[in-house]
Amino acid sequence: MKNKRAFIAIMLIVAVLLLAIGYAAISRNLTIGGTVTAEPNNENFKVHYSGATGTISSTKTGATLSATTDQNLTATINASGLDTVGQTVTATFNIINESDDLDANIAVATKEITGTNADYFELVSTTLGKNTLTAGGDTTTVTVVLRLKKTPTETVSGTVNVSLTATAAEKV
User: Is residue 58 part of a domain?
Assistant: First the structure.
């Protein structure tokens, strides 16, 4: 009887071992792999002009300034009536970052006056209120100051070109 119990115990141990070995022999590990890719979309970067104001710093009667923006990427300065050396025109444009989750770094890329009569005018300064705009509606200004540097003997004009670069940055 003792031998019979030992035999049954050994057989149960052998059966359990055979089941474990059999299970291990027919089991598999399943894995999931791959890659994920994200691409930039320019439509997510929403930095643009949001309005313009202008003032004539001279007391010259009849001098006018029109500072406009198309609510997008282009702003325009049209100044007329300057006739005395040193008269200046100042235009301020508002810039807004309406991106949901991209900050913007703003820099002045180009500033010049061109045209056949460009030597009558000077771009005195182009000043940014701040260089970094955080996402979600942060604003700054860019102020452009133009000066008449020599007295004209006939109507002259130049073309103002100020270019700003807005570069997207991950929100901090």
Answer: yes
In a domain, 159, yes or no: yes
**CA pair distance 102, 44, nearest whole angstrom:** 8
Specify the residue for token string 């056949």: 116
Q: Which domain holds residue 69?
A: 44-170
pLDDT tens-digit profile of 16-68? 777 777 666 677 788 999 999 999 888 899 999 887 776 555 545 566 767 67
* Total of domains in the chain: 1
Examine residue 12 and state whether it is found in any structural domain, yes or no.
no
Give yes or no for residue 149 having a pLDDT over 80. yes
d(C-alpha 127, C-alpha 86), whole Å: 19
d(CA 143, CA 88): 13
Residue count of the chain, please give it: 172
| Structure tokens, 117 | 């009569």
* 29 within a domain of the structure (yes/no): no
